[in-house]
Amino acid sequence: MSGSSDNYMASSGTTDFGRLLSSQLIGVLIDFLLMGALFLQMIVYRICFPKDALAFKLLVSGLLLLMLSRLFLLVYETQYFFAEGFGDGMRLAGQSRRQYSYALAPITLCIVQHFFDSRIFSLDRRLWPVCLLISFLSLSQCGVGCAAFGIVYVGSPASLLSKLALVTDLVRMWYILGMATALISTVTTVFVLLRMRAGNFNRSTKQALASVVRFTVESNAASAVVEIVSLALLQAYPNTTYYLGSTLLLPSVYTNMLLATLNYRAVVRQQRTAGSATAMTVMASQQSVAPAHVMDLPAVAKVSSRDSVAGADRRTSGSSGVADLGSVQQSQERLVVKRTGAA
User: Fold this and answer.
1) Rounded Cα distance, 71 and 280, in Å
2) CA dihedral 75, 78, 83, 85 (to 10 degrees)
3) Comparing C-alpha atoms, which of 209, 216, 224, 215 is closest to residue 186?
4) Which of 179, 211, 297, 337 has its CA 20 to 30 A from that of 77?
């Protein structure tokens, strides 16, 4: 994906290392910071969800191995170009053959996008056509990205110059497919959550759903902003490698977004627990005040034992019916929070 550097060297006849490598160096340094944030999120996930579903554990472990492999490749590339090979024009001329980390970016994005796609399907299975569309766009983006990397990696730098226009078009299409996938996924998720929020749930559950909606928009906006910036840099400066700096951040941004979504379940649980504790406190205070008023009432005649037993039976049956309805509603709310929390 760095064929623009070969085009620039061939057209200008000189080597401007700052113009060719500055964006990549800045992108690598920021990506190292995002990797540190990712490791912290991994620790939080292990502490808060030691008994999480096996599918989630496999997903997190697989992404961790993938990101560690990518981190080692980035360290190698940084050492090769910016340390050992600093100022070496021969190494710079063949830099497209040494940037292996870009091959992992389409795979990482595809995995994360399918996770959010499966979340939409678990929330509302009637939206399976939208889920199929998101999966198709994600797989298309992955294929386009792998094709662009293959064209850049295979062949000599001289032959790459003749394919530079094709590579640029593929990279541009890769950004567009990513933005379309993120937009459709975000809009669909927010639509489903808002429709669920309109259901007959208690206040704490509705507040939890509202916070999930807000968090979904904010987290998905981060990846969309990075892709928009990358596409804008490619359109404005097509003969440079400025767009590679922000492109380097995409795998870390997507993976952090997934881990943040999983860890946000702890915040949702805390909000619901606090809401339930507040409701119980209010009920307890009302019950403690009730006897003082009862004492002021005039004495009433005693009823017969038969009437008292019958009244007790009616109250028992009525309270059991209310309890059954309450248990059904609580189970529905727990199911809703579980599905949204899995997001």
Assistant:
1) 49
2) 120
3) 216
4) 179
| Distance spanning both ends of the chain, measured CA to CA | 32
pLDDT range class, residue 232, cuts 50, 70, 90: very high
Where does 198-249 have alpha helices with state H? 203-236, 242-247
Closest CA to 47 of 60, 28, 63: 60
Question: Which H or E run includes 125?
Answer: none
Residue 132: the pLDDT is 96
Residue 253 CA to residue 228 CA, distance in Å, equals 14
Here the contacts of 273-279 (C-beta below 8 Å, separation 24 or greater) are: 274/204, 275/202, 275/203, 275/204, 275/205, 275/207, 276/204, 279/202, 279/204
Q: How many CA atoms lie within 13 A of 141 on its CB side?
A: 28
Mean pLDDT score, 257-279: 77
Q: Are 259 and 38 in contact (CB under 8 A)?
A: yes
- Comparing CA positions, the residue from 22, 38, 28, 41 lying closest to residue 102 is 28
Domain 3-274 has what CATH class? mainly alpha
What are the sequence ranges of the domains in the chain?
3-274
Our CA dihedral for 230, 182, 147, 248, rounded to 10 degrees, sits at: 40
Integer angstrom CA distances of residue 113 from 123, 161, 169, 317: 16, 33, 22, 50
Question: Rounded distance, CA 198 to CA 179, Å?
Answer: 29
pLDDT band at 56 (very low <50, low <70, confident <90, very high): very high
Consecutive H or E run containing 121: helix 104-123
Confidence of residue 192 (pLDDT cuts 50, 70, 90): confident
Q: pLDDT value at position 97?
A: 63
pTM for this predicted structure: 0.75
pLDDT-derived band at 137 (thresholds 50, 70, 90) equals: very high
**pLDDT over threshold 80, residue 108:** yes
